[in-house]
Every structure is written in C-alpha cells, then in structure tokens.
C-alpha cells in the first residue's frame, strides 16, 4: 500500500515528555481491552463525583434491547467539574479567551472565577424563566462566551441543552425546538462573522412563529443592532444579568441523565437528536482531550470548531474546562480580515495545541505560505485535524509550513455519536502516516466487516465497513424520543456491533484509514449532510418534480453537493431557476447546504421497481462515467446517456 511509504515518528523529545509513549500506549490499550471495567473504573476518577459510582459498565448491543450505561449509580454535575473544582487552585487563571470576529476589538480573558459567576447568573436567569431539571433549552448563539455560560448553566441546573449552529435557517431551528420540546431558546441580536452579520434574533423570531406559544426567548446583546421584541416572550439577558445572583448550587445529576442533545444528519429524513449523558461523556471528553493533544497544565488550547458541532462541545467546552485548561473561543473565520488570521491568533495567545478541519487547511494552503510565515508559531506543540479524511498534500503543508516539522499531527476520527475521539495517533506514541487515523483510542475495538456478509475481516491489509465491538463511556445513548430508530440505525445492519457508517482500510501494519461514508451521508467542509435532507428541501419547491442529491469530490470542501433536478412539466430550465433553487435550499436548511452543481435531469435512472440508482448518479457526478457497471436493470437506460451528455462536473 503506497500510502504507508513515509511515516513520521515522534521526536525523541516528544516521546520522552508526552503523557503516553509507544510502550505505554501498548500496555494501556491491552489493559483497556482485557478488563474494561477495571480500566474505566480507574479513569472514572478524572471527574469529581457527588455520589461515587459502584457500577462501571452495563451495556447490551442486542437488537430490541440495546442499552448503554456507564457509572450508572454515581451522581455528579458537569458544570461543577468544569468550574467549581478548579476555583481553589486556578480561580484567577484564564478559563476562556474570547477572540472576536473583528481583530480590532479586544480579546476577553475570562477567569475560572468569572466563569463561575457568569454561569451561575445565567443558571438563575433560566430558573426564573421556569427551566428545571430535565427541561430542554435550545442555544442559538454566535461563538461568544455566553454560549459557554449557557451550556454550563444548563448543566448546572440539570437542564438539557441542544445547540443549533447559528448558520442554520429558521426552519431548521424550529424543527429542533419542536423536536426537543424546548422551553427556552437562547439567542443573540446579531452574529458577526467574517466581517458580515447574521440577524440571529430575526431568524429566531421566524422560527418561533412555528413553535408553541409558551416557548420563551432569552436574547444576548452582541452587536446592539436592531431587533424586534415580543413582550412576555422575549427576555433581555443583559438587563437580567445585572440583578441575577452569582451563586447557584449545582444539581446532583445521575451519570445517565442527559447532558445534551445535538441534532445531526442521517441517511434518511429528519436529522436525529443524538443524546449524550453526563458521567461517561465527561470522563471520555476529559481523557481524550488530555491524551490525544498531550495537554499539560498551563497550555493554551485552541479548537477552531463552532460550539454548534460536537467538536465544540467536547473540545472547546467540556474536555478542556474539565481539565482546567485555557480554551479559546474564536468568533471569526480563517480568512477574515485575511488568510493570516488563524496564525495571528496563535501568535497573539501563544497557542500550544491547535485543532482544525482539513477544509480550512486546504483553503489556507491555497492562499500561499506567506500568510503563515509572517506569524511566530513557536508556541505550537501539537496540531490536530477532524471532520474528514485529510489528503496527503494538505497534511504535508500543515506539517511543514504550520508545524515547522516540529509538531505531531493528530488526525482524529470520531463522530457526533461517539462523544470523543475513537481513533487517532497519539503525539508521543505513533509514527504518523499522512491521511491515516492510525490507532484506536483506549477501550475502542474497531472491526472491519465485509459489507454484505457482515463477516469480520481478519488479518492485514483489509478493507470494509467500520464497526466498533463493545462500548466506551462517551458513546451516545439514544436518539431523543426514538430509541427504536437508534437501535435500527446503529445496531441492526451488523448485529452485535456499533455501526459507524464509515468505510475503512486497515493496512499491513494494522493502521486504520477512513475511506468515507458508506451511507447517503456526505461530508461538506467537514459538515455532515444527509442527501435526503437536501432532496426534500428541493422537492418542496413548487417547480421541482423530483430530485436526487449525491456528493462529488471538491478541491476545498472535500465533497460538494451535486443535485439532479427534474422540473414540473412546462417549467423552463434556466440559470435564474438554478440560482433560485440554490437560494431556496439555503433558506430551507442553511448556507452549508448550498448546492454546488445543479443538473437538469429530464429523467432519473430508476430500476423497474422505481428505486433511483444512486451508484450511477455518483459516478456521473464524479465525472467517472466510463465504468457505470450494470445498467441493464434500469427501466429506461437512455436517461443515463442524457445525464452523461449534460454533466456539470467535467
Ligand atoms: C463523520 C462524522 C466528530 C467531529 C466532526 C464531524 C467523518 C470525522 C474524520 C477523520 C476521516 C472523518 C466520518 C464520520 N470524519 N473525522 N479524522 N478522518 N473522516 O462529526 O458531523 O458527526 O461527522 O465525519 O465520515 O463518520 P460528524
């Protein structure tokens, strides 16, 4: 396998100083598999418990009775673990550095003491709005410190937060408010990003028209820009915070009480509400943050994700704060005011660990090395990537130009469902291979299965679908309100295993390479998108009769969104209509779902039973139509010729 040609072993210094070196990894990994109960019992001590647990793992993957419990009889509070327990030792240490969109605006340094006061105030405001233990609160905020206060305030009083990425549309927001039956939506007036501003409150107003009248809206002032106000429904955070008490005792939550719901795309229909609970999630987020990034006391950690994604939950808020770190919240984008912004921020705040997505690396690589070279990046020690496979060219640039060849790159493979990293090289332990997620984290047992027979493929090298045998503490517990869908999605195709939805290769050295999704989920700029969601948005347009959506390779985004659209009889296929459909999808779902290419399709390739043959559509979108495979089962093979003839990607 040519991919394994060049490897990058850790420097002697890194191997000697890291939490985990090669020998320790092997020993700890073996121990974690041999006796998971003993291993995770010990790790359970990373968090402070109000009632100590006596049970560790209680898991059943049997279809029809799937249950996942960790530390079930313990009680704890996630907010107390992220704040209160650090107050004595590091009350005056910076917990959060807020770096605003506009570099002219001052950064804020929020100490653990201040974080405590702000979180308690927010918690008391929520209580006054009627939020109690078990209630849901939707957070629709920009990347501002109040987003972290809101998360931790919910955790403090036992409310379940569900963050909706601020780039999502009013419709998407309404669906999530209704799906989780939230009592309160927390939003801001406007969200500055990349020098532009999104009217978040206006979006929330539109969404709330489609929600129950009892839903309240707590509004944080970010820009002071214009908003409309509904008396009795809208509440002014900045006014209320003045009078709110800075004390709020943390609730003792059961380890298996939900901490948050996060909606994510699946291969069918509506996004699903992934549920994470408290005890196991906190243990896993804290451990992976410390070990994967070789985080040490005093380090400044920067994950560039948005708190609207799981990466922001685990590696901006819960993991770093549980470990008493200084974590950066960045409101902006990599290219504003110019392509040196990331590196300027690294220099300014002396960042030690930097964690971003391949799509950002590719975009910045395209702007040239000068933007990187003008910044002093000597504080960087470990680099990380997440969200999609990284191509070797981008990996090499990240390694050479950003890391100066000194910084190991942890290519972390995981999912919203997994709560934290499942596979990654460790900085002091593994000889990295560009593009490989390398090794399982402690307690993780990856298996590669033959897709149709579900037979486990032994030996190396092999390629197939990636499943995980057995559980880990950070695993999702259910889909909100639909445990049956949970079982069906993750435990029915490959009985006895957690099915990841990804394909993978294990090379001759036993290292893992993620090859991408094997279902109808695509990965656009590291954001997960169900092709079915884009299709249903398209067919909701009056002029569209039918639509089929597939991914295709895109230089910057990893995958682009390719739409085949059949119009209603009599509609003209014009460029204006293309634009209209593009904007339509943006308003239905959000800008991240913008179609890249729309091809007019007089007909779609279907089997005689009416099933769309996506394999063919994928090939055409990839501009790889020379080998379409067997098309003899098509009802009308001639539609394929038309689609090839008029393909958009050439
Ligand atoms: C899907 C999960 C987990 C945080 C970000 C995305 C893909 C994720 C990698 C990686 C190759 C990756 C997978 C996975 N993915 N990380 N390092 N290498 N692929 O979370 O939105 O839940 O998406 O992202 O396909 O299944 P998500």
From TrEMBL:
Family that this chain belongs to: Belongs to the ATP-dependent AMP-binding enzyme family.
Record's keyword terms, sorted: Acetylation, ATP-binding, Ligase, Magnesium, Metal-binding, Nucleotide-binding
Enzyme class: ligase
Record-annotated Acetyl-coenzyme A synthetase N-terminal domain positions: 25-82
AMP-dependent synthetase/ligase domain sequence ranges: 84-471
Function: Catalyzes the conversion of acetate into acetyl-CoA (AcCoA), an essential intermediate at the junction of anabolic and catabolic pathways. AcsA undergoes a two-step reaction. In the first half reaction, AcsA combines acetate with ATP to form acetyl-adenylate (AcAMP) intermediate. In the second half reaction, it can then transfer the acetyl group from AcAMP to the sulfhydryl group of CoA, forming the product AcCoA.
Domain AMP-binding enzyme C-terminal: 533-611
Cofactor: Mg(2+)
GO function terms (MF aspect): acetate-CoA ligase activity; AMP binding; ATP binding; metal ion binding
This enzyme's EC code(s): 6.2.1.1
Residue positions binding CoA: 193-196, 311, 525, 586
Binding site for ATP: 387-389, 411-416, 502, 517, 528
Domain of life of the native organism: Bacteria
Biological processes, Gene Ontology terms: acetyl-CoA biosynthetic process from acetate
Pfam families: ACAS_N, AMP-binding, AMP-binding_C
Protein modification: Acetylated. Deacetylation by the SIR2-homolog deacetylase activates the enzyme.
Sites where the protein binds Mg(2+): 539, 541, 544
Gene3D superfamilies, A to Z: 3.30.300.30, N-terminal domain of ligase-like
Protein's recorded name: Acetyl-coenzyme A synthetase
DNA-binding found in the keyword field: no
